[in-house]
């Protein structure tokens, strides 16, 4: 059973032992989605942490009435998303949309938290990955803000 999960966990838990990986596998479920399916919606209770096994997932902000939304980032095989499930108030901040047929490993966040309390090595590895995700988001936001300030928009009023 461990080998089947190792492919999906390569980046997330690559430093864990087979025994630790087996414990994570016990609280993990494989889920399949079709292109354009939503894995979760912004504002939903965040109950799972996800690792893409196959496919591509876009993380977007879609406001009511919008069909497309703003795409913030994508997740490829081996990458983590849904990190809000591991932090209070455990609410997803973006909508996860499949860009192609996708398989994910859905890890029960509450049980994962219990596991990290029992085995700090699991928690440490998870912390490293979640920190990297949020640091990348910070860098993206900083670049976007810099571009907005550097390139001022000129607004002109039309007569009448």
Question: How far is the first residue's CA from the last residue's CA?
Answer: 71 Å
Please report the total strand number as a whole number.
8
The second-level CATH architecture is Sandwich
CATH class bucket: Mainly Beta
Count of alpha/pi helices = 4
The sequence of SSEs as H and E is HHEEEEEEEEHH
Classify the secondary structure makeup into a structural class: alpha+beta
Low-confidence stretches: 1-8
Radius of gyration computed on alpha carbons: 18 Å
- Report the portion of residues in β strands: 25-35%
Would you identify the CATH H-level superfamily? Jelly Rolls
In quaternary terms, these chains amount to single chain
What does this structure look like?
- Helices cover 36% and strands 25% of the residues.
- The strands form two sheets. Strands 1-8-3-6 form a four-stranded antiparallel sheet. A four-stranded antiparallel sheet has the order 2-7-4-5, with no helix packed on it.
- It has a single domain (2-139), classed as Jelly Rolls (Sandwich), CATH 2.60.120.10.
- It has 160 residues and is an alpha+beta fold.
- The chain is globular and about 60 Å long.
- The chain has helices at residues 2-9, 18-26, 109-118, 120-150, and strands at residues 28-33, 38-40, 48-54, 57-61, 70-75, 80-81, 95-98, 102-108.
- The model is unreliable at 1-8 (pLDDT under 50).
């Amino acid at each position: 059973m461990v080998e089947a999960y190792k492919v999906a966990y390569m980046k997330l838990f690559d430093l864990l032992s087979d025994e630790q990986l087996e414990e994570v596998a016990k609280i993990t479920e494989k889920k399949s989605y079709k292109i354009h399916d939503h894995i979760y919606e912004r504002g939903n209770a965040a109950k799972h942490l996800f690792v893409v096994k196959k496919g591509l997932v876009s993380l977007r902000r879609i406001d009511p009435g919008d069909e497309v939304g703003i795409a913030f980032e994508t997740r490829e095989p081996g990458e983590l998303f849904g990190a809000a499930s591991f932090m209070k108030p455990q609410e997803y901040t973006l909508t996860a949309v499949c860009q192609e047929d996708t398989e994910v490993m859905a890890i029960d966040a509450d049980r994962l938290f219990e596991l990290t309390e029992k085995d700090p090595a699991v928690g440490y590895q998870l912390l490293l990955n979640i920190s990297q995700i949020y640091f990348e988001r910070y860098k993206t936001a900083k670049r976007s803000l810099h571009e907005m300030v550097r390139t001022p928009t000129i607004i002109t009023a039309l007569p009448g």
